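Re: that chain you flagged

S.,

Sorry for the slow reply, it's been a week of failed gels. I finally had a moment to sit down with the sequence you sent. For the record, here it is as I used it:
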Amino acid sequence: YNLKNIEAGKGGDERAGDASLYGGVPRASRDGDWSESYVVRLIDWHLKEQETMPWLTGTAYWPFKDFSTPVRPDNPVPYVNQKGVVERDFTPKESYYVFQSYWTEKPMIHIYGHTWPVRWGGKDDHKEILVYSNCDEVELFVNGVSQGVKRRNSQDYPAAGLRWNCVYQEGMNEIRAVGVKKKEKKEVSDVIRQEYQTAKWDKEAACQVSLLSEEGDTALVQVQLIDKNGIRCLSSKKQITFEIAGDGSLICNLGTSTGSRKVQAYNGRALIRIKRNGGNSLVAVKSEGLPTAFLELKSPK
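Prediction finished late last night. Pasting the structure tokens below so you have them in one place:
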């Protein structure tokens, strides 16, 4: 959303209309950019600025954990305020590690993108890779090839100077960062695997449902939005609803990104866990304007 459409100069108090979800003039709380990438950079900026304030005696981030809210039925996870640094089940978000890189002394390193399985762009495009760490120096490797060493400088925004512009190969890529904390003489590392898609997509045409994994009596199911040619629509933010018939049950109403019956697509997909309960089940996936998709989960032998 283009924030230039949000009228400025008349104060930022929205208490009179904050609960109004529809109509009215544009407002930052309702119409602004609250993507993970934006929030990570916003927090990074504020922490960087706080290090230049000698008069600042302390600071805190109010919403540590996501919390329920009755006035946000259309949030990505309905009725949940997602500004926390951990989900409601205490799963750390990317922003959690931004705070850690500024506020902890124990050596740590975290590549931004653990929740971003597929990136996209053109062939040979340079893509920014951010690393959040409290180490003095960090070296980045893409598919085993060093991209150079960077020194941490909290005033070099974003990511305290620990950023690289790199070329991904089509398909799967391994990103590895190695940091050195000289005072403690310790080395830490982090690794992620990201797929890179160069194929461009049209509008969403179908929901592609698959079984990602099974652990005990719990199955992890994914739905991916695809266009008429079967290409993943990675920027889609359509609402997705899960239903189930048979012996299994959805593990839902948790207020988390993988524990909600209804959720907005992220990276063009959505996930949910299902308790198998020993029998056969049929999972239905719905998204407005698209045919309902089904996945049969047979009883484990």
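What I noticed first: The chain is about 10% helix and 35% strand.

Talk soon,
D.
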